[in-house]
C-alpha cells in the first residue's frame, strides 16, 4: 500500500505552483478575517433599559442617583422584585409627569404592589449602560430586534 510520501513523489512536491496557491489563499483568508471576527466587537449588546419620557425631569427634581432612578422606574429592579428579562424590554405604563408622584418611592402612591402596574413595550428607545457605539446601539437591535444581529452575523459568513 502506498504511503503519503509515495503519493507526493508521484504528483510532485511543494513546488512553485503550490507556493503561489498557498500565498493566494492566505491573502484571501486574511482579507476575510474582519468579517468573521468583527461581529464579536461590533455586535456587543450592552446593558439597557427603556427610556421613559418624563422620568428625567422627575429624577432631576427629586435629585435621584442613576441607581435610584433605575430602582424606581425599571420593572424587575425594585426592592421586592428580581432582575429579569422584563427589566430590559418592558416599561411601566405610568404618566411620570403626575404631580402626585412622591420622590421617595413614586410608584407606592399609585399601587400597593408594583406587580399590579401595567407594563408596556419600549416606545421611546433605550438607554444604554456603556458609552460608545456598536451596531446594536446605533440601530437599537435589542429585545424584539435582537435576532437581526444573528442574521447579520450569518450573512457575513456567506461573503
TrEMBL record:
Bilayer-spanning residue ranges: 21-44
Alphabetically ordered keywords of this record: Membrane, Transmembrane, Transmembrane helix
Domain of life: Eukaryota
Protein name, UniProt field: RCG44895, isoform CRA_d
Source organism (scientific name): Rattus norvegicus
Organism lineage string: Eukaryota, Metazoa, Chordata, Craniata, Vertebrata
